[in-house]
Amino acid sequence: MKRIILFLATNMAVMLVLSITMNLLGVGRYLTANGINPAQLLVFAAVIGFGGSIISLLMSKWMAKTSTGAQIIDPQAPRNPREAWLVDTVHQLADRAGIGRPEVAIYEGAPNAFATGAFRNDSLVAVSTGLLSSMTEEEVTAVLGHEIAHIANGDMVTLTLIQGVVNTFVIFLSRLVGYFIDRAILKNERGVGMGYYASVFVCEILFGVIASIIVAWFSRQREYRADAGSAHLLGAREPMIRALARLGGVEAGELPKSFQAAGIAGGGLGALFASHPPIEQRIEALRRQQA
User: Fold this and answer.
1) Strand (E) or helix (H) holding 261
2) Separation of CA 30 from chain center
3) CB-based contacts of 14: which residues, under 8 Å, 6+ apart?
4) Is 288 exposed, middle or buried (0-12, 13-18, 19+ CB in 10 A)?
5) The one catalytic residue among 83, 103, 139, 147
6) In this structure, what are the phi and psi dihedrals at residue 107, rounded to the nearest 5 degrees?
7) Mean pLDDT of 48-64
């Protein structure tokens, strides 16, 4: 319920801020006088901007299982001792974090793990066979604590809200700029011309790049919080530090782009676009954390 309220409040806040800004700058009056209803454009931008993000979040568990081939472990009938230990460890960590016990899955691949799901009490934690075979049980436990911390912190929902906000700005501002160029610069007075569509296309790319930087920055911050959350759940920093050091010595497995930011390890095209901070910085942040 809190997340629904947060979603609605965020949506309304975005619309309110944009509306006030346009009125202060006189943009609203200009657009209305020239046949564009800024309120309708704002609603359109918010619906499209948030709609795609919310749908992706609601489908995230299904998408994760389908794209990675993750096999859900039946908690009542694990097939071997490794699966039994994995389920028991995830459930213990979830109980400590005060969240519902998530589904637990294993998938074939290089070392990585992820958590996803739209709800704290109905989520999924998956680990790769490569991670299980390359780490000690203590290190795997630390990684699982990291993923449980993501769920407990509501990171999937919050990242969706951030993405929805920036999407709204991208859609709304691109169309404002396109309309201005079409009418004020190209002097088109009949509907909208090719200048509008070309400008919107270019602006969506440019503003989308800026939006990606904002979302990536937030994603990196949540990784630090999840690392700290793992240390808190385990009662010590060292297991997570050792797990990160181990990840730093191997090539992390690729995850589908739709939920790449959910993994324990990841990257991006350059530091500004990286979904995860460098391993060395994450270890240093943990070492600075108070015991």
Assistant:
1) none
2) 37
3) 46, 165, 168, 169
4) exposed
5) 147
6) -135, 155
7) 82
